[in-house]
Design brief:
Keywords: DNA-binding, Transcription, Transcription regulation. This is GntR family transcriptional regulator. InterPro entries: Bact_HTH_transcr_reg, Chorismate_lyase_/UTRA_dom_sf, Tscrpt_reg_HTH_GntR, UTRA, WH-like_DNA-bd_sf, WH_DNA-bd_sf. With 240 residues, the chain is α+β, with helices and mostly antiparallel strands. The chain is built from six helices and ten strands, in the order αααβββαβαββαββββ. A hairpin with a 3-residue loop joins strand 1 and strand 2. Helix 1 packs across helix 3 and helix 2 crosses helix 3. The protein starts with 5 loop residues before the first helix and ends in a 5-residue tail after the last strand.
């Protein structure tokens, strides 16, 4: 009888667990059994199990947290294109979900020095500061920290009046049309971004650090939006 190689055994584990993930035996976010348990189940060594787990990670099906275990990656709730400039709410609707906005902070204050430099405005500028949790069918997909020049709002405006999509407010209430976004994209790991119920489980993000302008290149908003990794999926279309 020919002895099967570790690679062949690992491939069998990969195919089995891949099938179980896709059939819902291990749902998104679920922790897989330990290496010892998988080794016992498949009658293989821990080294073989590790090889299988590494392959599942490469395939984008699982991720491993040191000391905590291996988890099934979350399936994206929302798909969007980085080349597009538009409302997050519209992207959520296009993904067949119902968007929601939970405002945790709305206040007017002076801009900080580093913010003034990023926004290209005077250090004397006042801004409306917003802090939002953005949801799709009630599940949080992003945390956004937004600064809007106070001069954009009517004199009677009071912080606390905003609700729903900021882009929709720009369009419907102010007659402003955002047309240009200059964005920097970063991967972020932090325990200090998320807030509200379930915040503890959100620590990996894709940050879109973005300046929004209208057709006259007037600054409309500086936003730092932290999209939960694996929940909000971006695609970038590149052509030659």
């Amino acid at each position: 009888m020919t002895k099967r190689s570790r690679t062949t055994l690992a491939d069998e584990i990969v195919q089995t667990i891949k099938s179980e993930i896709r059939s819902g035996v291990y749902p998104s976010g679920e922790r897989l059994p330990t290496e010892a348990a998988l080794g016992e189940r498949f009658a293989v060594s821990r080294a073989t199990v590790r090889s299988a787990i590494k392959e599942l990670d490469v395939l984008g099906l699982v991720w491993t947290q040191q000391g905590a275990g291996t988890f099934v990656r979350l399936r994206p709730t929302v798909h969007d294109g980085l080349e597009k400039m538009g409302s997050i709410s519209d992207s959520i609707r296009a993904s067949g979900k119902n968007p929601g906005h939970e405002y945790g902070r709305q206040t007017t204050r002076g801009v900080l020095p580093d913010e003034a430099k990023r926004m290209g405005v005077s250090s004397e500028t006042d801004v409306v500061e917003l802090r939002r949790r953005i949801t799709a069918d009630g599940d949080v997909v992003a945390y956004s920290f937004d600064l809007i020049p106070a001069t954009l709002f009517p004199g009677k405006f009071q912080a606390g009046q905003l609700e729903g999509s900021i882009f929709r407010y720009f369009e419907d209430e102010l007659g402003i049309h955002p047309t240009l976004g200059l964005a920097q994209v970063h991967a972020v790991e932090s325990n200090h971004i998320a807030w509200g119920p379930g915040a503890a489980k959100h620590r990996l993000f894709v940050l879109l650090d973005q300046l929004h302008y209208d057709r006259e290149h007037r600054l409309l908003m500086y936003s730092r939006t932290y999209f939960i990794e694996g929940v909000y999926s971006f695609e970038l279309v590149r052509t030659n």
